[in-house]
Amino acid sequence: MIYLAVIFVLLLLLYLFLKNRNEKAEEAESGGMDVIQMDASSIVNFSFKIGDNFAEFSKDGDEWKNQEDSEFPVNQEAVETLLNDLLSFTAKRKLEDVDGLSEYGLEEPSNTIRLTDESGTETEILVGSRNQSTGDYYVSLAEAPNTVYVTASDLSSILPGSVMELAESEAYPAVSSSDIVEIQVKKAQGSYTLAYEEEEANWSVTGEDGISYSAEYQQVSSLASTLSGMVYSGLMDYNAEDLSVYGLDQPAAEIYIRYKEEIEEEEEDSGTSSDSSEEEEEPETVEKNFTLYVGNQDENGNYYVRTEGSGQVHRVSSESLSSALENNSVSYWSREIGYISMNNLKRVEVSYEGEIRTIERHSEEQEQEDGSTETEVTYTSGGTLLDEDKTEDFLNSASGISAQSKDPSLSASETAEITITVETESETFTVSYTPYDENFYLASDKEGRPGLVNKNSVSELIEAYQAVWS
After folding, report:
1. In-domain check, residue 271
2. Of 195, 329, 170, 193, which is closest to residue 254 (Cα–Cα)?
3. Which of 47, 89, 297, 359 has a CA between 20 and 30 Å from the CA of residue 158?
4. Could you tell me if 352 and 296 lie in one domain?
5. Is residue 2 part of a domain?
6. How far apart are CA 82 and CA 227, in angstroms?
């Protein structure tokens, strides 16, 4: 019986030990033990180290203020979020009666966080080192320095690396890419202007020489989307007094953006009614603009920027500005060679193999038996009727050719193999194709710009032209 009683006591002690250990394990799994017994809404002052200096914030009524700078634009939401994160971390376990705090990085803490509530109670959190084996972190409270808490939370990553992370930052101007009508990029070399020509519903590009050419829509659209979708990646200074620190006293580039913004109309009274048969009026718009100044790059390649009239200096990624800064006017040249609108075409003159031939387009409205009208199109050359399908195959081939690239420095030593002069209702232009090498022809487009065209495209054009006369 004595032996049985001893065994029973031992089993009971083992049960209580396992039960206590399981309760602690369950507590850790459910979120761990609280370290700080303070409510975020009761905090009226807190401070922490940034580098070698302390940042301190105090509550003035319902607003947080920077104790070091009364003009500092505190981001209230960011401060509240930081406080909640600092107060909500939990510990996996608690080590009591610890000697040798240096083992935990707490003899010289990496950071000291001080929190004061409405009653004046102050809590000081000492941030220690990281356990390289487990990945956990050590912290302690100044009121109980020999008690070390083991936590999965890295308080150093919760704290901002710069006080500017707690500043209220202005947003990048909100503009839709489809509303942009002009982009000017001024820089030391390769400045250019992109402008939307409303009458022609197309973009033009003007270089430093002041000459304007048609622009490639996709290229312009890509730049407009990049510039309109830009976001600031960090606030560096909320009121920069010395712009030279960021290279903004003499900017490396200036990007001017002009755009249209729709004017919001006041809603009509619910009692009024409108005639549904009336056509909807075009929304009224107003023109706006802003200029973005681009300064130096930081160690990671990000650019320092600011908008005209603002003292705030921001950081943006290099990808956001690379196309605008690296391109020049030629980068936006249209790749079309000689687009023809068939409805406006009047006459085409072709010079090929020493012979010049003309194609004239005629259109006539023919009344049908049912009373409707249909446009009849014919093509002639010197009074001779041409095959409509073959002629249109040639004209479509000529209209659809695009250059793989255009470069003002391109030239050819030979004479043009085929030259096409087009006369439309509104313009007359000439394009030509000259052998360049085994893969390309050198094309001179309708605006006189040289470009390289795939040899196969020109061969198909010549074959289509020859078929007209076969």
Report:
1. no
2. 193
3. 297
4. no
5. no
6. 32
Same domain, 347 and 319: no
For 5, what's the count of Cα atoms within 13 Å in the CB-facing half-sphere? 2
Strand 93-95 and strand 90-91: pairing? unpaired
DSSP-based three-state secondary structure for 371: coil
Q: Provide Rg for the chain, Cα atoms.
A: 37
CA distance 174 to 238: 20
How many residues would you count in the chain? 470
pLDDT band per the 50, 70, 90 thresholds, residue 21 = low
Each residue of 359-400: pLDDT tens digit? 999 998 877 777 778 889 999 999 999 999 999 999 999 999
For 409, the domain range is 342-469
- At residue 139, the 3 state secondary structure works out as strand
- Half-sphere exposure at residue 375, Cβ-oriented, CA atoms within 13 angstroms: 6
Q: What is the pLDDT of residues 165-220, one digit of tens each?
A: 999 999 999 999 999 999 999 999 999 999 999 888 899 999 999 999 999 999 99
Encoding tokens for residue 335?
């790749």
**E strand intervals along 408-458:** 418-424, 428-435, 440-444, 450-454
> Are 213 and 128 contained in the same domain?
no
Answer yes or no: do 388 and 438 share one domain.
yes
